[in-house]
């Protein structure tokens, strides 16, 4: 039989567990930052190892605290454009190619993927071929376009069609 004392203990325990859960959320939020790539990091989309390839790469911090790594900005968008991905996402990061080297992007050059600007339809290859060149400043993106051509896009303008066009351009270059 549930006595008044047992009831108070159960309710108090549930309350404390809820408060402990809130504290955990704060820890997850605080830990939601990009980290340096490791030699054993694999792309969450294609499974290839990431660290030794050129071009901008990405990371996505999930609501559960897990960090996904991507060999390219394009693969990050492949993941983001899946219907079940967005509810899981807390924050995504990409390399700012305006402040780092294309062949060896620095892990100190991550920026918020949602505020970055992207250049597509350019000939410079990333880890998986054509990729979206990511920049923290529109001026840097335009300077890249002056040298390599391309088209400027914002985060919310990147959709499946943009990714399909990247793949199609790559196939055409290979022929």
TrEMBL record:
PROSITE patterns: PROKAR_LIPOPROTEIN, TAT. Gene3D superfamilies: 3.30.70.2050, 3.30.70.2060. It comes from the Bacteria. PANTHER family: HTH-TYPE TRANSCRIPTIONAL REPRESSOR YCNK. This is Nitrous oxide reductase accessory protein NosL.
